[in-house]
Amino acid sequence: MALTDLKAQLQAELPELLKQDSGFRQWLEQLIRQTAVTPESFDARFERMLREFAADRAEQRRKWDEHDREWREWVAKFDAHTQEQARKWDEHDREWREWVAKFDAHTQEQARKWDEHDREWREWVAKFDAHTQEQARKWDEHDREWREWVAKFDAHTQEQARKWDEQNRKWWEWNDQFNAHTQEQNRKWDEQNHKNNALLEEIKTSRTRQEQGIGALGARWGIASEHSFRAALKGILEKSFGVEVLNVNEFDDEGTVFGAPDQVEIDIIIKNGDLILCELKSSMSKSDMYTFGRKVSFYERRHQRLAQRKIAISPMVPPPVRAIADKLGIEVFGYAEDATGL
Questions:
Q1: What is the pTM of this model?
Q2: H or E stretch including 61?
Q3: Interval 241-268: pLDDT, tens
Q4: CA separation (Å) from 165 to 64, 78, 155, 158, 161?
Q5: Among residues 272, 270, 341, 265, which one has the least CA distance to residue 307?
Q6: For an engineered disulfide with 216, which of 5, 55, 315, 327 has Cβ 3.0 to 4.6 Å away?
Q7: Which own/partner pairs from 81-84 qualify as long-range (CB within 8 Å, at least 24 positions apart)?
C-alpha cells in the first residue's frame, strides 16, 4: 500500500477509530507526547509511525487470514458432525415415535381399566357412606347415653372425693400423732440399745482379755499348746481389724537368727502396701525379744524390704523386756485388741 493511500485511509478512519477504541486513543496520545519534536522533524517521525502502523495492520491481516482458514476447516468438520447427528436424530425419532405409539396403546388400556375401577370404587364409596351415616347415628345415640352416665359418675365422684378428703384429714391428724409417738419410742429405744451395746462390748472385751490371759497361763504351764494360743491371737487380729495374718517359714542357712542354720517362723501382715511383722506369744523373755529382732532383720535382708511396723503381742511381758523392745523399735501390746492402727 502506497504511503499516500495509507495517509488518506488514516484521515478517513482514524477519527472514528479514536472515538470507538479508547485504548488505542490513549496509546496514540502517549506516543505523540513521547515523540513530540520540532516542526522540522515531525513529518519524518509521523511518516515512520505510519509505516509501523501499516506493518502492524499487515500482520493483523495475515493473522486474520490464518484464523479464517482454520475457521472454515472447523465449519466443515462441524457440518459433517451436524449431518451425522441429524441422521442419528432421525433414527432416534423413528424409534421414539414407535415407542410413543406403544405407550398410547398402553395408556388407553390403562384408562379403560381405570374407568372400570373408578365405577367399582364409586359403588363401594356409596355403600361406605351409607354405612358411615348409620354408624354416626349409632355413635350419636351412644354419646348421648355416655354423657348422661358421665354426669352421674362425676356427681358420685365429687361426693366420694368429699368423703375421702374428710377421712384423709382425720388420717393425717392420727398419723402425725402416731409419728410423734413412734419417734419418741425410737429415741428411747436407741438410747437403751446404745447403752446395751456399750455394755456388751465391754463384757466382750473383758472376756476376750480374760481368755487371752488364761490361754497365756495355759501355754506357759503346759495346760494348752503355744500353737493354740497363737492361733487364737491370729483370729482376734483378723476379726477385729479386717487383716490377714500370714505365717511364713523360711530357712536361715547362715544361722543369723539362732546361731546355726535353722527354720525361721514369723507372722506378717500386709495392709495398704505396708509391711507389718508380728510375734504372737503367750509370754516373752529377753531372749525372745532379741530373737524377734533378729527375725525381723533376717526377713528384711532376705526380701530387700523394710517393715513399716514391728509388733509383739503377749499378755506377759516384764518391764525389762519392754525396755529391750523400746530399744529395738518394737511395739508391745498386752492384748490383740490393743494393736492400734492396723
A1: 0.37
A2: helix 39-220
A3: 778 888 899 999 999 999 999 999 999 9
A4: 109, 99, 15, 10, 6
A5: 270
A6: 315
A7: none
